[in-house]
Amino acid sequence: MLERLNQAMEHVERNLEGTVEVADLARIALTSEYHLRRLFSALAGMPLSEYVRRRRLTVAGADVLAGGETLLDIAVRYGYGSGEAFARAFRAVHGVGPGEARRTGAALRSQPRMSFRLVVEGSGSMEYKVVEKDAFRLVGRKERVPLVHEGMNPAIVEFVKGLDPEVRERVAALSDQEPAGVLNVSVNIADGREEGTELDYYYAVASGATVPDDLDALDVPAGTWAVFESSGEFPKVLQEVWRDVFTQWFPSNPYRSVPGPEILSTRLSADGTTADAALWIRVERA
Fold first, then answer.
1. Which pTM was predicted?
2. How confident is the model at residue 119 (pLDDT cuts 50, 70, 90)?
């Protein structure tokens, strides 16, 4: 997988002056557009589209400083419809406009070319299984919250705190299948998974029961799930299992992620310092 991903990065470099289509990159990487976006953002720490933009403007910046072409010619060659659009994008990356950069010889920012290799570190105790599961329903309460990559998510903490204890008890009582117990469910997340982008968060259980009128429900179709189990310091273990799945497991196994809810089951220790975590992700064979 990593070899094919590196071939896709070479394709980016060959087409910086043209059009870089995610569909073409996905074909080179032998995966889906959805999984490629997810995998790249986990490995690179930025969305694929942002990487392409930074690389394009890094190379364009060298041409601006070289002074051999007009700024409009450079703008058009790198796919910008006007000098104004090019100037806005150039300033967003380099912190200075192209005209000023050329006049003053300003120092510009550079986005290095990326290549990928597998380094196994972190959660060495992570275990996984692949299971087929019939269609089921997630039942509970839903809230729109921002994505937070490290530490506790304040919006989720406030949302769960604000739930009436009677509601939490009723939700917990509806759990009647795997994954068992109260779950943290994330769905409708932007492919780039940028910090601060919003997602739908469900405080919910997997249930076949009739949904009460005052609760939210999400129907989940039948499919294949990869289930990852890990233990460690809370909440660090939760972020580590997400990281290891996309930076270690997917590049080394013949599966890819598919759209669907991401389900996390957490069992806290009595003092709240450690946790056992189980992460469920929809997959298909690559």
1. 0.75
2. low
